[in-house]
Amino acid sequence: MALVEDLAKAYQWNYRAKTPKRPEWFTEWPGGAKLAVAINIMHEWESRPTPHHTVPGRPLPPDTYYRDDFFALTMREYGANFGFWRLLDVFDRYGIKATVLSSGLTATLFPDTVAQAVRRGHEVGSHHWDQTIHPTVYKTKEEEREAMLGSIQAIEKAAGQRPLGYMSQGPRPGPFTLELCAELGFKWNGDYDTDVPYTMNVGGNKVVSLGYVRPSISDNEVWAYGFKDGLEQLKYEFRATWEEAQRHPMKFRYTMHNYVGGRPGMARLFEEFLQYMLGFRGVWFCRCIDMAEFWLQQEASHEKR
User: Could you list the residue range(s) of the whole structural domain that residue 193 is in?
Assistant: First the structure.
């Protein structure tokens, strides 16, 4: 029994649904859509870039004395200076709004990027403070709170509005992360994979779990297939999800990192994929905050009945 109790505590099933259920009221998304599509741009920064995070498989020489990896650093610079803007332009051409998940450091170092994202109608959520330091590194709740507050403040200062969504790096939340999300007023969380959104009641505060890329896919997986096969992989995944959505509503998430998905070839691949998705009926393109607010409003409405 102790093992079962320990597992329940570790997985935070006191807050999260162990097996999320589809509510009876959940028969469609806004406008009668059967499939909700939310696209993310990961806008990350590392205080100490490492090949482990940014360029796995390309380690520094074993006898390296200086540990700052400029090969990884310039990838992050490229993403913020070029890839990010290229992706915003693709969204503009089709009038699609996305969710940008920004490190607090990115908002501090490149404030115009998050400010411009908001001006163009995109959501900017928090991706913690520093891509180098994951929540599992913090030994106390207060240490992690300080980092999360730093990210909120940096994004709010640059964008003019505070973030309402959060996803940890990885995503790999720590034991304090979900409680902090609730205490700090986030409306949605992307740390836990799920087919269907569900509400987590954490100390009386409601946070909607939206998941990350399951179901769906990220540009890191697509890149590994090459351009042609990667596009076919995306189309196959989307069509499979859309077909299932005709039986019961589904969500589809595609995530791009600014330094991977923002390269010219990958941005073109995304544009072709976007054109493909726009050819399907009953699809609601939304930001993560739109999905979360819809869920909270519908849930509250049906609880009153």
Answer: 29-303
